Hints:
Number of domains: 1
Number of helices: 6
Order of helices and strands: EEHHHEEEHEHEEH
Strand content: 35-45%
Distance between the termini: 27 Å
Helix content: 25-40%
Oligomer: single chain
Strand order of the largest sheet: 1-2-3-4-5-6-8-7
Number of strands: 8
Shape: globular
Largest sheet: 8 strands, mixed
Amino acid sequence: xxxxxxxxxxxxxxxxxxxxxxxxxxxxxxxxxxxxxxxxxxxxxxxxxxxxxxxxxxxxxxxxxxxxxxxxxxxxxxxxxxxxxxxxxxxxxxxxxxxxxxxxxxxxxxxxxxxxxxxxxxxxxxxxxxxxxxxxxxxxxxxxxxxxxxxxxxxxxxxxxxxxxxxxxxxxxxxxxxxxxxxxx
Length: 185
C-alpha cells in the first residue's frame, strides 16, 4: 500500500467493484471520464478480469481516506500505457465519491502517484489527458506540478458538442526540484 497524510492507495479487489458501478452511473462523475454510457455490474466484472491479465504496474489502485477507524473508498487511480524504453506512462484518476470532491484528495493522490511513478517505477515522464470542461481536475494537476503541453482540439464528444482534450505532463527532474522546494519550506 502507498500512504500519505490523508490518502491510502491499495490494489482493487473483486469486493470493491460495486461502488464503481454506482459512481460511473452518475452522469456528473462520468462527465470528466472517457466513459459515456451507464455501466452494469457485469461490465465492471469483465473489466476487472481483463485488468488482472495486464502488467502489475498498470493495475489500478483504490483511493481511500480515513473514516473514523476504517478507510473509506472514494475512487481509483493508476498508470496505463507504460513505455519502459522511454520511461513514460499515462496516469488516470477518478474520484467517484462526490462528497469527497474539493477537499484536496485528488492533489494528494496525484503527489503520491508521482512519488511512486518516479521513485519506485523509475519513470522519466508522466502525462495525462484532461477535458477542458473539467477545471477542478485541471487545477488539481497544476497544483501537483503538471505542465500544459498541448491540446487535442475538439477530440472528445459529449452531450452534443465537441470538447478539447488538454495534454499535461511532468518530468522526473521537475518533480525532484519541486519536492526539494517543498521540503525546504
